[in-house]
Amino acid sequence: MTPPADPPPKRTTYRHGNLRNALLDAAVELAREGGPDAVALREVTRRAGVAPNAAYRHFADRGALVHEVSQAAMAQVARTMEAELAAVPATDDPAARARARFRAVGTGYIRFATREPGLFRTAFHVPADMAYATDTTAAGAGGLTPFEILSASLDDLVTTGILPEDRRPGAEFLAWSAVHGLSVLMIDGPLRGITPDQADSAAQDVIDMIERGI
């Protein structure tokens, strides 16, 4: 009878840069499963197959690790928004395209929240200011963060004459507040029991409201 194969040895060494990435990947998965509170250094190192103190070579403390995970989660928000933008049908009407792209930005944001609630919660486990809203660590494939993607879509509304220029200042915060509020109600509030179809309908209704109000 052939004896069972020995389990693979724990990984104790990584090529330059790989350990940090492995730790961050493990932390992102923990956040996906349980939000920012689930990110624990001991569990991160266990999943990466290294000693508990190995994390401190790359992250000063748990707070530093959670911040990196927050930025990585925000970058995933950006990529979901980019996917919605890429799906906007081609048109020769600049105004119609600008409207469609603005709606795609909001749709992508809410869609990410409902599909990845753990990462969405973690994305906003951030400092109490806008210090990292335009940091490249939170950018999608196109190099823009979610806040910058929203800003660009609003600029397009101004360029095409849909949004009056004098109403452009601060419009990001009005639009963001509305879609974020709905997202939180659907993942952590009294709307968390609605069906996916109801969630999609609510998202479009809120975006309609934003478009009429800004």
Automatic annotation (TrEMBL):
Keywords: DNA-binding, Transcription, Transcription regulation
SUPFAM superfamilies: Homeodomain-like, Tetracyclin repressor-like, C-terminal domain
Keyword Cell division attached: no
DNA-binding region ranges: 40-59
Residue ranges annotated for the HTH tetR-type domain, each copy included: 17-77
InterPro entries linked to this entry: Homeodomain-like_sf, HTH-type_TetR-like_transc_reg, HTH_TetR, MT1864/Rv1816-like_C, Tet_transcr_reg_TetR-rel_C_sf
Family matches, as PANTHER family: HTH-TYPE TRANSCRIPTIONAL REGULATOR RUTR (PTHR30055), TETR-FAMILY REGULATORY PROTEIN (PTHR30055:SF220)
Protein name listed in UniProt: TetR family transcriptional regulator
Organism: Streptomyces bambusae
